[in-house]
Amino acid sequence: MNELVDYFWQRRGEIVSLTAEHLVLVALSTILAVSIGVPVGILLTRRPRLARPILGFAGVVQTVPSLALFGFLIPLPLIGGIGARTAIVALIVYALLPILRNTYAGIRSVDPAIVEAATGLGMTARQRLWWVELPLALPVVLAGVRIATVVSIGLATIAAAIGAGGLGVLIYRGIAIVDNRLILAGALPAALLALAADFLLGALERRWSGL
User: pLDDT-based confidence at 210, cuts 50/70/90?
Assistant: First the structure.
């Protein structure tokens, strides 16, 4: 154990640098997924006929193996190529389903009597959405964001295969030279990031639920 700690200490600069790259990949993809998924989820509550096909399509995309999706995206113009851009697009695709589904489910679960009361108070549709429906649905939406973030942290390790950087670099290098210490140098920080994200977002979700 002491030998492993010493090994990590010797490589601390590289581990910290790659962890920062990993965080950038996850943060950018999650922010973009939220900025797409939440509005589309809201739209689906207003257009219920679109909900099943769109959520179904998002669910089918989720079944595509991540490495295969990276491969499909590489030859595409604008969003493809080798590097972080393709990785971010792929991570957005995988993050969309939980955000979409939870936004849709959260708003649909708001008690109709509350919405009716807001209408009776003279609120417009936009006011009802911002002041009533979204605040009540937020814990469910945050649960979707938490799932998407944790999944993205894991998938981002695979992005190293297309030159996107991140902690996957250490994992792939360790596999190539059969060095378990290198594999752990990438895998352990990634696992800690996932646990930290799950804890922090879970705490935020519980706090909002208790308001």
Answer: low
Q: Using CA atoms, how far apart are residues 162 and 88, in angstroms rounded to an integer? A: 11
Question: Would you state the pLDDT for residue 157?
Answer: 92
Residue, of 211 and 61, whose pLDDT is higher: 61
Residue with tokens 């993050």: 95
Contact assessment for residue 85 and residue 20, using Cβ atoms and an 8 Å cutoff: no
Could you tell me if 166 and 18 are in contact, meaning their C-beta atoms sit under 8 angstroms apart? yes
In this structure, what is the dihedral angle of CA atoms 116, 118, 122, 126, given to the nearest 10 degrees?
-100
CA distances from 138 to 104, 106, 130, 145, 175 (A): 11, 7, 11, 10, 41
Report the C-alpha dihedral over residues 173, 177, 181, 182, rounded to 10 degrees: -10
Structure tokens at 173: 């290098």
**Which 3 state secondary structure label does DSSP give 156?**
coil
Q: Which of 126, 107, 106, 100 is nearest to 40 (CA)?
A: 100
- What mean pLDDT is reported for the chain? 89
Of the candidates 58, 72, 155, the residue with the CA atom closest to the CA atom of residue 80: 72
Q: Are 33 and 146 in contact (CB under 8 A)?
A: no
How many CB atoms neighbour CB 103 within 10 A? 27
**Is 13:181 a contact under the CB 8 Å cutoff?**
no
Which tokens in the block code for residue 102?
């939870």
